[in-house]
Design goal:
Mean pLDDT of chain B: 89
Low-confidence stretches of chain B: none
Strand order of the largest sheet of chain B: 1-4
CATH architecture of the largest domain in chain A: 3-Layer(aba) Sandwich
Radius of gyration of chain A: 24 Å
Number of domains of chain A: 2
Number of domains of chain B: 1
Largest interface: A-B, 37 and 36 residues
Number of helices of chain B: 11
Number of strands of chain A: 14
Radius of gyration of chain B: 19 Å
Strand order of the largest sheet of chain A: 7-6-8-9-10-13-14
Structural class of chain A: alpha/beta
Order of helices and strands of chain A: HEHEHEHEEHEHEHEHEHHEHHHEEEE
Oligomer: heterodimer
Strand content of chain B: under 5%
Number of helices of chain A: 13
Order of helices and strands of chain B: HHHHEEEHHHHEHHH
Largest sheet of chain B: 2 strands, antiparallel
CATH class of the largest domain in chain A: Alpha Beta
Structural class of chain B: mainly alpha
CATH topology of chain B: ABC transporter involved in vitamin B12 uptake, BtuC
Shape of chain A: elongated
Number of strands of chain B: 4
CATH superfamily of the largest domain in chain A: Response regulator
Helix content of chain A: 40-55%
Distance between the termini of chain A: 93 Å
Shape of chain B: globular
CATH architecture of chain B: Orthogonal Bundle
CATH topology of the largest domain in chain A: Rossmann fold
Chain lengths: ~400, ~290
């Protein structure tokens, strides 16, 4: 038996490597010099939702910088907010591990997660430590329906958006003399599209619109020519779409190509309805409608921020201002709590009547973590912009309904 | 079912098949000569589509005008890729090539995601919304152009392989590598040329697809799985088979979508695929063993 000469055995090496990896694995952060409050941002900045996640982070960072520049949390002696940046990669299990990691770092509250699928387990992980978690984007109603005391959502949930859509569509149709009497629904096959289509199909008859057909399509769908053919032969007044971005754009483009005349093309939380679509395909987008989250265009603060964001060459997408306002909501609660203590911040959020945001919501009022004033608005694409057309008190333009026929 | 709709759906299906043919024909060439399954095909198509996108948005080059440039660039890219990466690291083993092309696909997609983001990009050109009445169907001009171009391209490629010296050399390499080397053919060069030509087809496909489609870092997946189906269906290595296979698949997809709905209609392609292979195991034009 020979004695081992090497002191650096394989076992030692593995141990050392693991220790090194563990120390690198913890996010390296600027350690607090004075009193700072750590806010964990849990967004998908890589992976297939990277664009949206990046926009969320951008908005949240804008709010943190602004709060710090204005003197931090004053009731806590000007304590500054410090962002812990996390990447949930749009994967539920990664979201949970980011939450755990940030907890080790002494996080006071979380903002996230863009995706409902990540938000569901991530909020649950945060609930174990009773850490406040503010949902910036994430539409599933299950996020707030599970009785978790630490979860708060400023924006409306999915059901409430569908209800707003039905009321809005009914009012606009009535005001125009009721040109829409029938509709065809085209939706993608997953939970989002199927769920929306089912809810809408059940509620449309209540505003006098008959559902002629509900068509489901796969993700991805490469060609919508047949769907266009069917729509042409069914001759509905309205087309209601629930699809993700690629199929939304492809379907809209095909219908425009085929010159199919409809009184309106309409979606709820439409996957592809955004500034990019309107700017890149203005002819296709023109007069399309969507019920979605939007800032209050009549609020000067919103317009000022829109200018600041666009001056940086970025688009003022819903992710930016929802994440921005989520951070501001948290800061307001901490200001009133006078502390970053988790219990106290949660109590302050529950008692929140915050109205310094620029969303079309009114003062906040949380019931089971859901802001009751949260409203979706109806948007319509104009030639080069997106206008709010309903409800009228927030409207920046009148709806173009029914939409003019193709030349 | 209305006969007009049926006719229109059939025409749409054939046009759709035309665009599949562009992707499949390059894949079948690479398989026929190199006997490798090129998993990087979809990612290279994606790169070519981004190339077309940036040529229009940054340099204002029309996608159709960009065709010669894209074909040349993709040929050069494919040739170099084979010489520098695939050929070098495969050490002559097919299973290595499989892994290398798969690895390339993953690397390329993630590079694209990093630089171009996951956002959907589309282009609009003056003829994007031009329509042509073709019997019962209103057909978008870009789709008609891409259909006709894919017929021309497949024909030209078949002629090139059948008639030119380079084509003969490629066929010789495909049939019998050692024999080809003995008669003085630079086998490694011909393999790289064949790979380059297969990839050059993607350059043409990208120019023809972009006016009516979109590009994202994962757009290749949409086409490459269908293209693999077409290549096997048509008989691996056969151009006529690839073209005919593409038309059959396009027609199947369209008609199945019409009769079964766009969700359930997806079963049409695998169903036809299984049926054809059941009766012709080597594909429509495949050489029997």
């Amino acid at each position: 038996m020979t004695t081992r000469k090497s002191r650096f055995t394989r076992r030692n090496f593995i141990g050392a490597t693991a220790a090194a990896a563990a120390s690198f694995g913890v996010p390296t952060l600027l350690r607090a010099q004075a009193k700072t409050i750590k806010v964990g941002l849990v967004h998908p900045v890589t992976g297939f939702l990277a664009y949206s996640g990046g926009q969320c982070r951008f908005g949240a960072m804008a709010a943190i910088d602004e709060i710090n520049a204005a003197g931090g949390i004053k009731s806590m002696g000007g304590a500054k907010l410090e962002a812990l940046l996390g990447d949930n990669q749009a994967k539920p299990e990664v979201g949970v591990s980011v939450v755990e990691k940030m907890n080790e770092e002494g996080v006071s509250a979380y903002i996230g997660c863009f995706s409902s699928a990540v938000a569901l387990p991530a909020t649950q992980a945060a609930a174990r430590y009773n850490t406040p978690f503010i949902i910036d984007v994430g539409a599933s109603d299950n996020i707030v329906n599970r009785g978790l005391k630490n979860v708060f959502r400023l924006k409306p949930g999915f059901l409430s958006c569908v209800d707003d859509a039905i009321v809005g569509l009914g009012e606009i149709n009535k005001a125009a003399g009721g040109p829409a009497k029938s509709a065809v629904l085209v939706h993608e096959e997953s939970e989002f599209g199927t769920g929306t289509a089912k809810l809408l199909a059940g509620k449309l008859p209540s505003i006098g619109i008959e559902v002629k057909e509900v068509m489901k399509h796969a993700n991805p769908t490469r060609d919508f020519s047949n769907v266009a053919l069917r729509i042409r032969s069914l001759k509905p007044d309205l087309l209601i779409m629930s699809n993700y971005q690629n199929e939304y754009v492809l379907l809209a483009r095909t219908l425009h190509q085929q010159k199919i005349d409809l009184a309106g093309m309409f979606s709820v939380l439409g996957g592809g309805f955004n500034y990019k679509f309107v700017k890149e395909l203005p002819e296709v987008a023109q007069n399309m409608m969507d019920v979605n989250h939007w800032f209050d265009p009549t609020n000067p603060k919103a317009q000022a921020m829109k200018k600041r964001v666009e001056a940086k060459g970025n688009l003022f997408t819903f992710e930016v201002y929802l994440a921005y306002n989520a951070v501001k909501l948290l800061a307001d609660a901490m200001e009133r709590a006078g502390s970053a203590d988790k219990e106290k911040v949660i109590a302050a959020l529950n008692a929140s009547t915050w109205s310094d945001h620029f969303m079309p919501y009114g003062p906040t009022k949380f019931v089971n973590g859901q802001n009751q004033g949260g409203k979706a608005v109806m948007l319509q694409a104009s030639r080069n912009d997106i206008e709010v057309v309903w409800p009228s008190r927030f409207a920046s333009a009148k709806p173009v309904f029914p939409k003019p026929k193709h030349a | 079912m209305d006969a007009t709709i049926l006719g229109a759906a059939a025409i749409n299906g054939l046009l759709l098949g035309g665009s599949y043919a562009l992707v499949a024909v390059g894949l079948t060439l690479i398989y026929g000569v190199l006997h490798i399954i090129n998993f990087a095909h979809g990612s290279l198509l994606m790169l070519a589509m981004y190339g077309v996108y940036f040529l229009l948005t940054k340099a204002n080059v029309d996608p159709y005008a960009a065709l010669p440039l894209m074909v040349a660039a993709m040929f050069a890219g494919g040739y170099l890729l084979y010489r520098a990466v695939i050929g070098r690291f495969s050490h002559g083993k097919d299973e290595n090539i499989l892994l290398i092309t798969l690895g390339l696909a993953i690397v390329l997609e993630n590079i694209a995601l990093f630089f171009f983001t996951g956002d959907t990009q589309t282009i609009t050109v003056s003829y994007s919304y031009e329509m042509v009445a073709l019997g019962p169907a209103l057909v978008p001009l870009p789709k008609l152009v891409s259909f006709l171009a894919s017929l021309v391209l497949c024909g030209a490629l078949a002629l090139f392989i059948a008639r030119t010296d380079a084509g003969k050399a490629i066929r010789a390499v495909a049939k019998e590598r050692h024999g080809a080397r003995l008669v003085g053919i630079d086998v490694d060069k011909m393999l790289a040329v064949a790979y380059g030509i297969g990839i050059a087809c993607l350059g043409a496909a990208a120019c023809l697809l972009m006016p009516s489609f979109y590009v994202t870092p994962t757009v290749g997946h949409l086409f490459v799985i269908v293209a693999f189906t077409i290549v096997v269906l048509g008989g691996m290595g056969s151009f006529v088979g690839a073209l005919l296979g593409a038309l059959i698949i396009g027609l199947t997809e369209s008609l199945a979508g019409l009769f079964l709905g766009e969700a359930l209609g997806q079963i049409g392609i695998p169903l036809v695929f299984i049926l054809i292979l059941l009766f012709r195991p080597t594909g429509l034009f495949g050489a029997g063993k």
